[in-house]
Amino acid sequence: MNAAAILSYSTSFALIALSLGLLLTVLRILRGPTLPDRVLSLDMLVAIAIGLIAVLAIKSGFNLYIDIAIALGLVGFLATVAFARFILARGLSPEKDKGRGSTLPTAQKAKRGKLVHRNRKGAR
Fold first, then answer.
1. What are the distances in angstroms from CA 86 to CA 90, 98, 100?
2. Which residues span the domain enclosing 24?
């Protein structure tokens, strides 16, 4: 078995594995259940797309694909940051998110809506 055959089998396997990952990521985007889950899945989708483009660049020998993958990486990063800022500005809470996937600890949920001041000794 020569190097060209190994490279051909490897790129074919990588394309199949990345395609399967792409399919599972799209299913995760559709299922959710929360907005942060979908944003994380979109970020993963961009990473898988970059991998697919890189494998296609290796398989075809066309080096311009690498530049496209780098540009997609930059755009994907900016999109993820924008989505994260949107989620923070939206202020996901258990009431707005219908209680699914709440990340607030129990102590913070109990104090929610109450203004708690403590002096230096810890008394209220």
1. 6, 18, 18
2. 3-111
